[in-house]
Amino acid sequence: MTNDFLDELAELALGSRLKRLSERLITDAAQVYKYCGHDVQPKWFTLLALLDKKQQVSIVDAAQLLGLTQPAISQFSKELIAKGLVISTLSDTDSRKKFLSLSEQGKVAVLAMQPMWQAVDSAAKQLCNEAGVGFFESVKNFEKALSQQSLLQRSISLLEQASAKTDVEFIDFTPELAIDFKSINSEWINEMFELEASDLEALNYPQKNIIDKGGKIYFAKHRELGIVGTCALLKKEDNSFELTKMGVLKKARGLKIGETLLEYVIDRANEIGLSKLFLLTNHTCEAAIHLYEKHGFRHDVNIMEMYASKYKRCDVAMRYFK
Length: 322
Fold this sequence. Notes:
Aminopeptidase, 3-stranded antiparallel beta sheet, 14 helices
């Protein structure tokens, strides 16, 4: 049996694989139409089915409901009108808006195609069942994930992260870096809130309040910009740690350094073998919260009750789960 090279390419060739699969299904569907004696192209199916159910739909609404472009719907409608299966009418209130509906010939044709559609539906269900693991639901979930963030956006984000990692190195705390720890955190806290007593204690005396208590402080050093980011792991009782005082200088924002730094600190925390890792923040830090959620942190009521009183600004508590 000939090896399928797309198996070797795996997810890298996902688009090509889906295109190949789609073409096979559409080719088979065309043969079913031919077998049943219907002079209809499979690409028209979804629009015909929509008109059969809705009776009348504008081109704009049809495009939105079917997830197609307006030019594609316009082209399909022209072809169906030429076949005598669809009619187009202008809106009574807006001459620029066109409505599509089945012609009498189209209604007869769709009625005649119902048994064939039912057979194809059953055959498709058989294929999905044979594929297993909730294939159809997986496809719907895949489309949902794609609509939330496209392949383009995801690829660019990963390329930016990779670029950030090559431009940044991470270094541990030394007494000489205490001034950077304070300046980086003072910048973002003063920008969004105000420095509290607990902030000043930690920022003015990081050696005593973090390092000497078994905690860690890490720094992100950019190849051109120097020390631009920092994050601390503050040790608590029962070997739990608070991820705290994480910030990136304004001049370095947009370079994905914060995300790269967070990934690095989480890796170091996992190496420590701690009992739990948590953080405290404020709901106005939406971008940061999204970043934490993306990397395994979940909102936790127990953490809120145990530690939130530490800061006046704290109204969000999160715990890390691998």
